[in-house]
Amino acid sequence: MSNAVELKKENFEEVTSGAKVLVDFWAGWCGPCMMLGPIVDQVAEELEGEVVVAKVNVDDQPELAVRFGVMTIPTLILFKDGKEAARSVGVVPKAKLLDFINNG
Q: 10: exposed, middle or buried (C-beta count within 10 Å: 0-12, 13-18, 19+)?
């Protein structure tokens, strides 16, 4: 079971206002998203208490995808104190994802 928070437009601002929040924009039909999903879930478990990991299903929440200019999925956006700090598009290995979070 994933420790990632499911984001919707109703809770997006509240969740992403934290010190460090990783948001995974994905869809169930997206092959690369299915490859990245388990990696994001592992990171959510390992960094619990340090980083909030959240997911946005772009099919269910298209307004959020448009708002953040997500044109390709998977897209990972790192928020710090409610503002976008870094962005990554495509599948990345776990080590690179951890670097992205730590250095983003």
A: exposed
Cβ(89)–Cβ(41) below 8 Å: no
Split at pLDDT 50, 70, 90, the class of 53 is very high
Domain ranges of the chain: 5-103
| Active site (annotated) includes residue 30 | yes
- At the topology level of CATH, where does 5-103 sit? Glutaredoxin (3.40.30)
Which among 5, 33, 64, 77 is annotated as catalytic? 33
Known catalytic residue at 28: no
pTM (two decimals): 0.95
Q: Which of 5, 7, 23, 30 is catalytic?
A: 30
* Burial classification of residue 20, based on how many CB atoms lie within 10 Å of its CB (0-12 exposed, 13-18 middle, 19 or more buried): middle
